[in-house]
Amino acid sequence: MFSFGKDSMAKYKMTSPFEITPLSPECFWGKFDPPTIQFCERNLCEIITQPANTWSNLAFIFVGVYLLRKDAKSRTAGWISILIGATSFLYHASFTFLMQFFDLSSMYLYSAFLLTMNLKRTGLLKDQRQMVAMSSIVLFSMITLFFFRKAGIPVFSVQVILAIILEIYINRKSDSGIIYKNYFIALLLFLMAFGIWILDLTGIFCSPDNHFLQGHAIWHILCALSIIYLNKFYSDK
């Protein structure tokens, strides 16, 4: 069962996110550099080191396939969702920085997509320049991550916050009566997911040997669902 409370990390001998427990050299992925962050689920010395956090990424892939089949407007979000699912699957399966790098890079692709969509809607970015702008943001983020390994989540967070700030600006300047129902549902799902992400990371909501369900696995599922509603919002624009 999951444990709540300040002593949960001590009870399960959990480390902080900055105290990484590397895999043993004899493990399948043991010769690779470990990632920069460690979640609640205890690593197994197997090909899939974190079963719950790994298989839950299928939610992104299912959502991506759904969006690809939905309509042409949803294809970009669909491919991004599939890419996030695939790279996050490999990251949690391997517990390596190499796969964490590609996992974060796919997240940058999504945050850059949201950011450039809103820049386009403000008139600051032309339609034909969106892909160039997206590529530039992702490339800059990847270079930053390469040289500053612990900058991964902060860079993603800044891009998401900027996208939200632009949405607030668009709302205040627009007279078109934008309907924000799907946007708010997506935002609520993401905030719920992020709250669970924090609880899992800090060990407050934690059961390390539960390889069926983890807080971080719930984060994956809720974030995948948020992509559906955010896509609905932007598809109407």
Describe the protein.
The chain is mostly helical and 237 residues long. The protein has nine helices and no strands. Residues 4-15 have low confidence and may be disordered.
Write a concise keyword list for the protein shown above:
mainly alpha; 237 residues; single chain; 9 helices
At a glance:
The chain is mainly α.
Instruction: Please trace the helix and strand order, writing H or E for each element.
Output: HHHHHHHHH
**Tertiary shape:** globular
How does the helix and strand content classify structurally? mainly alpha
Distance between the terminal alpha carbons, to the nearest Å? 44 Å
- Spatial extent as radius of gyration: 18 Å
Tally of alpha and pi helices: 9
Q: Specify the helix fraction band.
A: 55-70%
How many strands?
A: 0
Q: How many strands, what sense, and barrel or not for the largest sheet?
A: none
β content, as a range? under 5%
Low-confidence stretches: 4-15
- Could you tell me the mean pLDDT? 90
SSE inventory with pairings:
Blueprint: H1 8-11, H2 51-55, H3 58-70, H4 75-94, H5 97-122, H6 130-147, H7 152-173, H8 181-202, H9 215-235
Helix pairs in contact: 3-4, 3-9, 4-5, 5-6, 5-7, 8-9
